[in-house]
Each structure stands twice: as structure tokens, then as C-alpha cells.
């Protein structure tokens, strides 16, 4: 695994480890108040980033250019903001970071969708 795929998998592994430690902490304290934030970290961090890593490994040409780097950057920033933002929202502190992180999550997925369609279109033209 190289390039963009490596960085997405590294992000996935770090997210999984943080999510696991967070889950253990919630279990040990019997306080699951922040479970939705923990769940978003696991789903968007571990699962989505793993899927992205495998896609960029299987379709290496999809990882070329500026758009895939933008995808990685948006994902990194989103994962840095969204779980904490959801936590703050649950604790009635502020919803600003949760909203910003959510918008970044949608933008990152839209960018990936464009990358996917662009690389799928290129493949179908080659296979025709």
C-alpha cells in the first residue's frame, strides 16, 4: 500500500485505536453519554477511511492529482473536528464544530464521489 492509500489506512488505524480506547473508557466508567461521537469516529474514521484506502489501492489512477489530496485533507480535518464537535453538542456546550465537521464530512464524500465517477468513467472507456 502506497501513497494516498497508505495515508487513508494510517488514518483508519489511528481512528480505530482512539475509538477502542474511548469505548473502553466509556465501559469502565459506565458513562456512555458520548457514544454517538464514539460511533461517528469509528464509522467515519475506521470504516470509511479503510474503504477509501482499499479503493485507492485497487484503482491507483484514482489517487492521482489534486482532487484525491483534497479528499484526504478534508477527511483529516473532519476527523479532527467532528467527534469533538459532537461531544460538545451532546454536552450542550456548542453545536458549531459538530455542524462544521458534518459539512466537511459531506464535502469529503462528495469529492470522493467525483473521484469515483471520474475513475469509473475512465475505466469503462478503456474496457469498451
From TrEMBL:
Gene3D superfamilies: Cytochrome c oxidase-like, subunit I domain
Keywords assigned by UniProt, alphabetized: Membrane, Transmembrane, Transmembrane helix
InterPro entries with a match to the protein in the record: Cyt_c_oxase-like_su1_sf
SUPFAM superfamilies: Cytochrome c oxidase subunit I-like
Transmembrane segments: 39-58, 70-90, 96-117
Superkingdom of the organism of origin: Bacteria
Protein name, entry field: Uncharacterized protein
Amino acid at each position: 500500500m502506497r501513497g494516498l492509500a497508505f495515508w487513508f489506512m494510517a488514518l483508519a488505524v489511528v481512528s480505530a485505536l482512539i475509538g477502542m480506547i474511548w469505548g473502553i473508557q466509556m465501559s469502565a466508567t459506565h458513562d456512555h453519554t458520548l457514544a454517538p461521537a464514539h460511533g461517528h469516529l469509528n464509522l467515519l474514521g475506521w470504516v470509511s477511511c479503510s474503504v477509501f484506502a482499499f479503493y485507492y489501492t485497487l484503482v491507483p489512477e484514482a489517487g492521482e492529482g489534486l482532487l484525491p489530496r483534497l479528499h484526504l485533507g478534508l477527511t483529516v480535518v473532519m476527523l479532527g473536528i467532528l467527534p469533538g464537535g459532537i461531544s460538545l453538542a451532546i454536552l450542550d456546550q456548542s453545536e458549531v464544530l459538530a455542524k462544521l465537521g458534518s459539512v466537511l464530512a459531506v464535502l469529503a464524500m462528495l469529492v470522493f464521489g467525483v473521484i469515483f465517477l471520474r475513475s469509473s468513467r475512465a475505466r469503462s472507456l478503456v474496457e469498451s
